[in-house]
Here is the input.
Amino acid sequence: MTKSMYDSNNKRPKRRLLHTSDVHLGAYDYGDGSEARDELHANFGRVVDVAIREKVEFVVIPGDFFDNARVWDDTLEYAAEQIARVEVPVVITPGNHDHVGPNSIYDRFDFEKQAPNLRVMRVPEGETIALEELDVEIWGRSHTELLPDFQPFVSPPPRGDAPWQLGAGHGHYIHPKALLHNSFHIREDHLIETERDYIALGHWEQMTRVAAGELTVAAYSGAPEGLGEGSQVGGRVLIVDLHEDGRVELQAHSLGDRPPLAHEDIPYLVGLPIEPDNQYDRRHLSGL
Ligand SMILES: [Mn+2]
Here is the structure.
């Protein structure tokens, strides 16, 4: 939870969202299908069940919703059916597996017709989606296949006018144990500069909060698939409460029947000290 960027006398509307990512629908679309495929799809159905049960007002999916652009047609239909079932707005910021641009999966199927509550960020330079009835704006930059050194949060636009300002993006948070060869860098200072209230991150399968300064809460929801069950955080999604006093509070909800994890019990990762790029690159290359 963080302090508000606003005067605490200036109440904001209370809002609740669900954040999930890295669903990778269609990852097992080969052969004659499989139990793994059925389970992956059923698991996204459970995400929708949690969204409905927890009465969220919108859903944010920062990337890798689909595994690749060649998934089966019935996977696309299933995805659209489930999104339509949520009923509230669903915002997708595409990642490296479901990028926009040439050969995008989002051009294969008329999602917005099948699921009119879906909004896909399609502008590579970045765009803000306004959920006007909710007083929420969500800014993000989608992946394309054209930019290998893509960094989703550099040079963010200033906060907009709506009381709640969120960000969504897909990439690799740079911290002291991060591997240099990983792409799509997200750094703590990038997140601080966004001045957003909450940043929904995707690309990692593990759920974790990450350091983003005093005024911004940022977290990876991790994949909803139960791969990390032993870690206590696998097979979960994030429910995010935006409180009237400006606080942002997370809860990790199980897709099974385990109790939710409170904000402070969700793992927390600290970023690298803020330094010029060349300097921290050299430190990694020298084996530090
Ligand atoms: Mn990814």
Q: What stands out?
A: The chain has one domain: 15-285. The CA atoms of residues 125 and 141 lie 6 Å apart.
